[in-house]
Specification:
It is built from 2 helices and no strands. With 81 residues, it is mostly helical. The protein starts with 5 loop residues before the first helix and ends with a helix.
């Protein structure tokens, strides 16, 4: 009966669904890390996981996280000179 009404269905989803399995956006670029994924104020530390995403992905985050890892590795290599 909840799903018969769009407003009630949206309220139910907002209250009962979450990103517990794939947390994201806890260390966003520009707020916690720079464009090269370096943590502000901590020399030599990069973040390379879903926490740097600005928002959760619409689907499974695997491809986005792999791309972040690639960019972080490339950035670390560049940092070495």
């Amino acid at each position: 009966e909840i799903m018969e009404d769009d407003v009630r269905a949206a309220q139910f989803a907002a209250q009962h669904l979450s990103l517990w399995q794939h947390p994201a956006s806890t260390a966003q670029v520009g707020k916690v890390v720079d464009q090269k994924l370096n943590v502000f104020g901590v020399q030599g530390l990069k973040v390379a996981d879903a926490s740097v995403l600005p928002d959760a992905t619409g689907g499974h985050p695997d491809a986005a996280i792999r791309a972040i890892g690639y960019l972080a590795a490339e950035s670390a290599f560049d940092d070495q000179g």
